[in-house]
Amino acid sequence: MNDLSDSLQLREQYNQNKEGSSLRQAAFFSKEEKMFPSIHLGFADIPTYSTIFWQVFFIAIVIARKIAGRYRLAKEDVLYGAIYAAIGILIGSKLVYCLTRLPSLIQKWDAVAAGFDKNFMQTLLFLMNYLFGGLVFYGGLIGAFFGDLMLL
To answer: Which of 80, 76, 95 is nearest to 143 (CA)?
Structure first.
């Protein structure tokens, strides 16, 4: 009889802990989380994604230059490869982003064409922001590959 009451008591504690943990999880996820897409300085906004990207990129160049001797590579070749890869990343990621946004722009073309008649500059700025507003990871990866391929 004692074993039965112990197992029931353990079961109750388990259920209470389970409910309590789900309540704690709900409380954790219901908090308003803040993202910082840009760092606000008095005179400018610096995007955090690109800042972190370039920091990691330069750290990778420093590390690659240090270990280049192990693989019998010239340190200058590592630097040139990084520069070509960076150019390829920028071109490739932007190009693929524009290509992925193109179908939705074609669907909205009637509204865009009507906007050109009303306010040319505002519509042109909208198009530039719409098409050139982001980057695509796999486009950058493909661009880096072709950028370094140009070096060879």
So the answer is: 95
Contacts of residue 65, Cβ cutoff 8 Å, sequence gap at least 6: 75, 78, 79
Q: Side chain identity at 69, as an amino acid letter? A: G
Residues 6+ apart with CB under 8 A from 124: 116
Residue 34: CB partners within 8 Å, gap ≥ 6?
none
- In 3D, which of 122, 130, 135, 146 has the Cα closest to residue 49? 135
Answer whether 114's CB lies under 8 Å from 51's CB.
no
Describe the crossing of helices 48-67 and 75-107 by its angle, rounded to 10 degrees: 150
Q: What is the pLDDT along the chain (152 residues), one digit of tens a residue?
A: 455 555 556 556 655 655 555 544 444 545 555 667 778 888 877 888 778 888 999 999 999 999 998 999 898 999 999 999 999 998 999 899 888 888 887 887 887 778 777 887 877 787 777 777 778 889 999 999 999 999 88
Residue 78 · residue 61 · CB < 8 Å: yes
